[in-house]
Structures are given as C-alpha cells and as structure tokens.
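FORM 7B: Structural annotation worksheet

SECTION A. Query
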Amino acid sequence: MTKERPRHDSPPGYGPPPGHGYPPPHYYPPYPYPYPYPYPPPYAYGPPQSTLGGKGGLIAGILLIIGGIIALIAAGAITAVGLFLSAAPFIGYLGGIYAGCGIFMLIAGIMGILGATFAMKREKWAFVLVACVLLIIGYSFIFGILSLIFLILSKDEFIS
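SECTION B. Predicted structure
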C-alpha cells in the first residue's frame, strides 16, 4: 500500500515541498514579489514627482526673497513713521501702534528671507509654510500668496 501525500490547494511554489509530509520548521514559502518583506515598498514606482518638474522650491524661494525685501523696506518706513508720531502730544498712542506693526513686518520679512533659503535647499517645509503665511499677513501679501501656491504644489520635493 502506498502512502498518499497530503493535498494542497496552494499555487505552485507555496506550501510544503513535494515528497514531504510537513515542511521543516525553517521552511518559508517564497514571496510573490522580490522584496525582503511581505508587503510592497512605500513607493512601488519611485518617489512621487512634483507637478512643477523640480522647480517649485526655487520659484517659491525667489518669491519669498522678493516679498521679504519688500516687507523689510515697508517695516523700516512704518517704524520710522510710528516713532515720529509717538512724539506728537495727542496722537502719541498711534505711534506705538505703528511701531508695533512695523516690528511685526520686520519679523515677517526676516522669516521670509530665512524661509527662502530653506525653500531653495528644499528643507523644512513647515518653516517655509509659516514664512509664506507671515508674508501674507504682513505687507507683501501678493508674493506670500504666490509663494504659498508654489510651495503647496512642490511639497513632494522637500525632505521634511
């Protein structure tokens, strides 16, 4: 009487090798794809590509530099007007408000230029996003909006 082999419904290449009743403990079936782990890699067809062909970070950086310089010039003018108004007898409080707005625009301009350097290196996407938003709130809102659009379109180019 011959010994029957156990029936296997798995496709060829899977399951126990022929001629054995059960696989040895170190036997594992081959993977259906050539990867060392049982799930596909995060990008099966390569990393995602930007819609701007790799130039979005550069364009956003140039717009941030222009907006940052405009914001720095406007911050100097508004702060000077605020300091001039603070010496006036009845409207001195307006000078403090103008000086505060000028200092905020100074911070927005500095952040815009720092964000431009990171945008051109394609690093720290969140920092560049904050710089774009500060330029929108500050004086150079057109350059802030344009750089924000290019930054969002080129998010896949950035490292973090």
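SECTION C. Observations
The longest helix spans residues 56-85. The mean pLDDT is 77.

SECTION D. Sign-off
Analyst initials: ____
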